[in-house]
Amino acid sequence: MADREFDLFVIGAGSGGVRAARFSADRGARVAVAEERYLGGTCVNVGCVPKKLFVYASHFRDEMESATSGFGWSVPSASFDWPTLRDNKTREIERLNGIFDGLLRDAGVQHIDGRATIVDAHTVEVEGTRYSTENILVATGGWPTVPEIPGAEHAITSNEIFFLDELPRKAIIVGGGYIAAEFACILHGLGVEVTQLYRGPLFLRGFDDDVRSHLAEQLRSRGIDLRFDTNVTAIEKTESGISAKLTDGSTLDAGQILYATGRHPLSANLGLEDVGVELAPSGAIVVDEISRTTIPSIWAIGDVTDRINLTPVALHEGVCIAETLFNDNPLSPDHEDVPAAVFTQPPVGTVGLTETQARERYGEVEVYRSTFQALRQTLTGGWERTMMKLLVDKKSDRVVGLHMVGPEAGEIVQGFAVAIKAGSTKADFDATIGIHPTSAEEFVTMRTPVEG
Asked: Which pTM was predicted?
């Protein structure tokens, strides 16, 4: 490897790319990272982090209503200022960008600004300069997809919503995935009148069906206009914003229309096809069990491979790359029992199999499900109801799926994910003493299956 400039050249400084670069450098490798946009990738700049900050902001209206309606507080008339939230968020993201830069520098990784392309199996070019490297890692992530319909140029995506000059009074959100549902709740919580459209019969495809139906009920109770089996056929610009033509022949007027209809892997124009790297029809880079492409010296991780598109998964894959290449320890990323959260209001937490998946894999499955009003809601007359669900393989008694819709679902399920990963049985859950009074204790007190 000494005759090449680098042992590893990483294209993309998102979460996965930076983790792979740092850990590889820690193991003695000579590493460079090229990035054409911003350090930290989607998650830090236009994804998880700013979105969660907006989620926090959108909760305060409910908090104030609960304080005054049931807990005896008197809250003066409150108003929301969008530029304050937007600009404070931007300052925090800029701080995180600096932290990522410091992490690379402290690890001894060379950071190169600019768009990188692959010349051959051991050469990368950035802004006219070529670099030789033993291995290339592609970690370029994904990008929002907007369908080609008349007027599509008038739509925004999750990339742009974090930087709006002003918040619209009305908004249309198109899509049925977790990003669409989260932004529907964020905007609604900030006082925007929201209509969410999805072309299918029920949103959050891929999640447990009870989670999907329960969350739909909760969002409608909150006042979000959910319309399923409905799509947009055209968008027109108007003096007040936009007008969307729908598949049922009606029109919707709003200040903004946000498309959250999926993301595509950012693999185009990198030179991958020219050097023989296989791509899936979606543009995803095809990799084997250790994240290697069809060219032995070229690797790929994160959203560009379209496996499980979550930041912690990309981080895990980055560690596996470092171990495989520079610690003589070939590691395959573990994509089983990955916990996830959807930061809607109420939020969703999930780990393991859905009921459909569990029945397909194990046949006989016991289902435990509980729907209840959390203690906090009892003084406020709140409409929100929590749903919890356990799926148990009847033969082994192992808990193979755990799902929750309710306050702090992500925080609660993260802890239970350890138990699922460790192979805990329903008997283990039953033997665990609950913390009272909490919602979380419901997971260890459900005794009677609703189905077998």
From this structure: 0.96
